[in-house]
Amino acid sequence: MERASFKCVVLGSVDTGEADRVVSLFSEERGRISAFAAHARKSVRRFGGALEPFTLVSAALVERRGDLYRFERAEILEPFTAIRDDLNDIARASSACELVREVCREREPHPELFGELVDLLFRFSTRKGAPEDLLVFELRALGWAGLRPTLEACTGCGAAPSSEDRFDSDAGGLVCPSCARRVPGSRPISRDAADGLRALQAGVRAPLATDARREARGHLARFVAHHVGRPLKAAEFMRSLGIE
Length: 244
Hints:
The chain is an alpha+beta fold. Among the domains are: 80 residues, CATH 2.40.50.140; 86 residues, no CATH class. Helix content is 38%, strand content 23%. The strands form two sheets. Strands 1-2-3-5-4 form a five-stranded mixed barrel. Strands 7-6-8 form a three-stranded antiparallel beta sheet. A hairpin with a 4-residue loop joins β4 and β5. The longest helix has 19 residues. The radius of gyration is 19 Å and the shape is elongated.
């Protein structure tokens, strides 16, 4: 059995058995991994708050047969405690972590995305984030997962963007009016929302008007749901509370 320590963000966990827990982690070295934490719900001394979502930890793991590691211990590197004091930040951090859990393959390293996630959690925790930060992170995560939406031209014919474009998750992004007639299920998208998403995907952190940001979030949430196969729970929670 191989023992190793990894720097990880805790994405979430599932209780199993009488006191155990399976923890989903996003590690800098191995990408997304899962670890079995025996007696985690009883062993306060071993884990403390290290298995709470959004926590940055140094995780001592033992590799087992199959895909599951065994948790030996965890040292908290950064708890990002302040996130848990604000419902909006909890929802946004949950959305980012759930997206990583759903679109990143097991044991496929994404060190850039790991850095982006840690930076995003730091922004939420220190109240230094902008409303567009989550959209930027989601677009980059989708890009690194090979699911980058096409926003620079029509996905069908390559036509340049226009004010009459629509957004279609099945087609993979923007579709021009002509192609939209052949694509059932496409939705209208305003020029402001399309321009805003395009700028954010290109790395320009331009502020979006509230309506455009809300519209962009809706399109991106449906895009993710299409590729994951279901709406993300955190995204639905954000929508229900009107959180952008």
